[in-house]
Design brief:
Helix 5 crosses helix 12 and helix 11 runs antiparallel to helix 13. The chain has three domains: 129 residues, Rossmann fold; 126 residues, Hect, E3 ligase catalytic domain fold (Alpha-Beta Complex), CATH 3.90.1750; 146 residues, no CATH class. It has 16 helices and 18 strands. The strands form six sheets. The chain has a five-stranded mixed sheet with strand order 2-1-3-4-5, with helices on both faces. It is an alpha/beta fold.
Length: 560
């Protein structure tokens, strides 16, 4: 009798082979079935330690489908021990089965007595594959339910302890030197006009260092870190559940990603708070107020080019934009730079500087200073040498690459463990204990993954800052060399971006001087070639500099 050619496919979800589902046990059972039913196995495919959640992580399964498509062995069946070994995602099972049938290949599940070449087998496969997927989802839901119960009890339910705390026997306890940094961040944010970036810069400028720990590899403070502190309710004694959620990626069958969830649940924690609820509420209100971008309602194409760069001569705060139309007979829109009077002076009084500076005049004066710099014959050569130096980011890129590799490994281990939990036999007398032990290990994986995600985010922030510095330098060089030619063609938005990349701050006099001068100094973000050397600050009160800009008062209001 002519034997029917077939492939054999085996799979286990973990290298710790569950009793009854081991690779040897599956292979032995399939071989006995083949011998007893006249099948000849011409190809063996095995995925060891691979989850049945989807096909993406099963290279041997995909190779088997490729071989079926090529028709190289002219097989009629694929033999598997149970349907769950073929796959646990209903969509993948049915899609793969339909693909095989396109090339005249059917599936036989030996232990389930299922043959897809028969009508009853087709129905059974549809039902069992759906049930397998539901079981897997139920196990995941049970795992999350355990984490939810811990949150409801006020207990820390996963991940490394947040900065300011340490975990002792699963409970959060304050680490006083770290907690002082947390209190300082909230204090600076709610009692000054500093934003999150300003608070981070202030901490770094004051010489504060973060303690290095599992989920923290950077001594300096970043905006990302400060935001994380200000947005974490754990610091006023609460435990949050559901701050992140897993969402299906649209347009895919099985792919998911983790996203932030604003609609999370808060429970009173059993740990000691570092800040008061009142401080939290004040910080939260400011975050909501300053975290949004204001929508312009007039002069939509106008940008306040030097807003924030020009400093108040009294309190040093950045001058902000002011708009006026009603006092103009021709209804022409007027834009000014003015002080918001929000900063306190050393005597405890708020700044009362009331002068409005016409934006057009200030913008034109700064443009003329830059123009006078770039027209120096030696400027192009000198700046190309200065800004063209590359920053070495190799080590940082390698660090991120290694962290991502480790993250993928942890994700794979987590998925393998989930599949292992999925494969537990409910009839096993030790089923509950095994499930509890595995859930504890699963919590540990979630903690490791969250830590790695944090480290990657911190490293990427540093890389972005370095790359931006290099890109800005190279871009600004090209703009500076051709400043006279191109700047007047920029939109207001482009001019604002240009000035913010080039200039750190602009100081002015309280009033225009008798000689018409009102600019006191311009500080740049990187060295600028001037006369025969490099400067970070240009003092316009010096006689030589004043002459260099061609007596600004004579040309006030002119544009380049």
């Amino acid at each position: 009798m002519k034997q029917i050619k077939c492939y054999m496919y085996t799979r286990v979800s973990t290298t710790i082979q569950v009793e009854g589902f081991s690779l040897d046990a599956q292979r032995d059972r399939i071989m006995r079935y083949a011998d007893g039913n006249g099948f000849k196995i011409v190809g063996e495919y095995c995925d060891a330690g691979k989850s049945g959640k989807n096909m993406a992580g099963r290279p041997q399964f995909k190779q088997m489908l490729d071989d079926i498509e090529s028709g190289k062995d002219e097989v009629a069946f694929v033999l598997v021990f149970k349907l769950s070994r073929f796959g646990r995602n209903a969509a993948d099972v049915l899609t793969s089965l339909q693909f095989m049938k396109t090339y005249g290949v059917n599936l036989i599940c030996v232990d389930d007595s299922i043959d897809s070449s028969k009508d009853s087998g087709k129905l059974m496969i549809s039902v069992l594959s759906a049930v397998a997927e539901i079981e897997r989802e139920n196990i995941l839901e049970q795992t999350m339910a355990g984490r939810r119960r811990k949150a409801e009890e006020g207990k820390w339910n996963g991940g490394f302890a947040p900065y300011g705390y340490e975990l002792i026997k699963g409970e959060l306890h304050i680490v006083e030197d770290e907690a002082e940094i947390i209190r300082l961040i909230f204090k600076k944010f709610i009692t000054t006009n500093l934003g999150v970036n300003g608070v981070a810069n202030w901490l770094n400028n004051q010489g504060y260092k973060k303690k290095l720990r599992q989920n923290n590899k950077l001594e300096g403070f970043t905006t990302h870190f400060v935001k994380g502190v200000l947005d974490n309710p754990v610091y006023y004694g609460m435990i949050a559940f559901g701050r992140r959620k897993t969402e299906k990626i649209k347009g895919t069958v099985n792919e998911t990603h983790v996203v932030k969830n604003d609609d999370y649940i808060l429970h009173k924690g059993i740990h000691e708070a570092i800040i008061s609820e009142e401080e939290w509420n004040v910080a939260r209100a400011k975050r909501e107020r300053t975290g949004r971008q204001n929508v312009k309602t007039h002069a939509l194409d106008h940008e306040h080019i030097l807003s924030g760069l020009v400093k108040c001569p009294i309190c040093g705060a950045g001058l902000t934009a002011n708009f006026s139309r009603k006092h103009s007979k021709d209804k022409y829109e007027r834009f000014y730079y003015h002080c918001k009077h929000s900063r306190f002076l050393p005597n405890g009084q708020k700044c009362n500087y009331k002068k409005n500076w016409v934006q057009e005049d200030v913008n034109a004066a700064v443009e003329r200073v830059i123009c006078s710099l770039v027209t120096n014959p030696d400027f192009e050569k000198a700046m190309k040498s200065q800004i063209g130096e590359n920053l070495d980011i190799t080590n940082l890129e390698n660090e991120i690459k290694n962290l991502r590799t480790l993250l993928r490994r942890k994700e794979s281990n987590k998925n393998t463990l989930i599949a292992q939990i999925d494969n537990l036999n409910p009839d096993d007398p030790h089923y509950k204990k095994k499930q509890d032990d595995m859930n504890i290990r699963l919590d540990s994986f979630y903690e490791d993954i969250e830590s790695l995600e944090y480290q990657i985010s911190e490293a990427e922030t540093r890389l972005t800052n370095i790359q931006q510095q290099r890109i800005n330098g190279e871009t600004i060089y090209n703009y500076l060399v051709f400043f006279e030619k191109y700047y007047s063609q920029f939109s207001d938005a482009e001019k604002k971006e240009f000035m913010n990349v080039l200039i750190e701050k602009i100081e002015i006099f309280e009033e225009e001087q008798e000689n018409g001068l009102f600019l006191k100094s311009i500080s740049f973000r990187f060295p600028i070639y001037f006369k025969s050397g490099y400067v970070r600050e240009l003092r316009l009160t010096e006689k030589s500099t004043f002459e260099m800009v061609a007596l600004l008062s004579q040309h006030k209001g002119d544009n380049i």
